[in-house]
Amino acid sequence: MHKSPDKISTVPCNSAELPPELFNLNAGIRSNMPDNSLLFTAAPDTRRIILTGAVQSGKSTLAALLVRQLKRKNIHVAGILAKGLWENNQRSGFDLIDLKTGLSMPLARRLAPAEGLGKPEMPFRFLKTGVAAGRRALNVVQCGRADLIMVDEIGKLEARGLGWAPDLAPLLAFSEAIHLWIVREHLVEKICRIWHVTRTQVIHVTAPDALEQLTAACATGKIE
Prior knowledge:
Elements: E1 40-41, E2 47-53, H1 59-72, E3 77-87, E4 90-98, E5 104-110, H2 113-116, E6 124-126, H3 128-137, H4 140-143, E7 148-152, H5 156-159, H6 165-172, E8 178-184, H7 188-194, E9 195-196, E10 199-204, H8 210-220
Parallel strand pairs: 1-9, 2-8, 2-10, 3-7, 7-8
Antiparallel strand pairs: 3-4, 4-5, 5-6
């Protein structure tokens, strides 16, 4: 892969209140540090793409198309993709795909009304086996030789030090790889503030050439 940068598009990182804790994806991985100690600045040559959009706007679907294209180009991809599941026109859960091995594992399933006591802010129950699979996929050994490291998704849990948050800083140490994060659009500035990467390009899922932008950036190593 060609690694030299072209024009860099950076994201403003405004200060904002972090969201309240929603759901402890795995009690064993929660950070006990104060919020401001979660701030992390990557090496100057680290490159990151953020694929963003609204809830259920097709971010993961587009990311899956990208992975298929990159593998045809012999670009090595690692990390995780969350495949959304549907039942009766409602999101019923997610399966986790290990992008290096291609293995799929149930990650989360929608809570029954009795479990959620009405309408919980986090309406899904995370499965320990799926979380463990995700942590293995994001391990530095698994990702160390990848050209692209994808994390789907980074959201409110991660902004509180939960979910995949503990894995992000070690992965960003791999400055030879491109890091592709999937982030909901209202969280982009917050996530950029916590994990600051100077060379960051934001691509919106609704852009007519979103797939072409992603493919070009990942295949050439250029962050536009």
